[in-house]
Amino acid sequence: MVNSRYGNRYNRTSMTRNRSGRYSREFKHVPTHQQSAVLYGAGMTRHIDLKSDNEDQRVAVVGTMQALEKPYFRISKTPAPWEVRPPEVLQLSLQHILKLWMNGERKYAWIKDQFKSMRQDLMIQRDCSELAIKIYESNAKVAIDAHDPLEFNQCQSQLSALYFSGTSWPHRLEFTAYRILYYIFVEDIQGLNLLFMRLKPSEKKNVFIQFALKAYNAWSQHNYKRFIDLTNHAEFDGGEKCKGLLSWSLPRERQHAVKAIFKSYRQTVSLDFIAKTLGFADTPSCTNFFADTMKVSLDLLKPSDNISCKDVWSKINQAQVTT
């Protein structure tokens, strides 16, 4: 059942809703020899129709390239074997690229390009193995760290299809939790509902899923304080990625929280109280948020221990009318 919170959010997410369900349904009816076109074609600029080996032997490329680094290029024809890295080289390439990223030796744009190149080599060789899962999972985690929602969404969409194969993948629930947090970010209500319908009771005991469900409950119930607090309380192995994903929603949820505070409080509030409620480390960060995001004059935040709710609420309403 759709929560009442979703009234105006449902229409704004028509482009992103049900994406995971669509991938799963389409993938289910695709012949085995064409499945990699579904799994990898969406991320490519040109679709390659992967026919069976009897129909077109040229498509069954077995790579021989040994380079660990390879820029991403758009493809217009089936590449030669020496232009494609085989799985064993891609495994080494993944380790190499991740090391450069973790050591800060390359900028994100370069790392992103290398991942696209690895994914392209997987697609060309129709590789849907454990290595494909590993590359997409690593790519998604790097995208979280780099605050790149578009790249993360490409990866999580493909992972959704790969996981749908039915094999027991060790990180499936972890990335299911990431999808929940991402759907909160894009306010994809139908995507969330589909995920929840598929979750088994035993899967809800997973620590990642439990965190994502806490975030969802706080978000859907307008519990802004609880939602914001969760961005600093994911104290479990791997929780940093959950906090990173949740932080993508912070600017929007802080705006909702500010409106709720100044609409509800009749008299005055202190800047310190607001800063703590919104999860800011200090009051200067909070005042910058009011000035840059809420378009509230800093003069209205004085004195800091006795801010007029009426005056600030009036200014917020004026800013909404003019934007």
UniProtKB/TrEMBL annotation:
Region (Disordered): 1-24
InterPro entries per record: SAC3/GANP/THP3, SAC3/GANP/THP3_conserved
Gene Ontology CC: one annotated term: nucleus
Top-level taxonomic group: Eukaryota
Any Pfam family the entry gives: SAC3_GANP
Domain SAC3/GANP/THP3 conserved: 76-290
Residue ranges with Polar residues bias: 1-18
PANTHER family the record matches: 80 KDA MCM3-ASSOCIATED PROTEIN (PTHR12436), LEUKOCYTE RECEPTOR CLUSTER MEMBER 8 (PTHR12436:SF4)
Name of the protein: SAC3_GANP domain-containing protein
Source organism: Rodentolepis nana
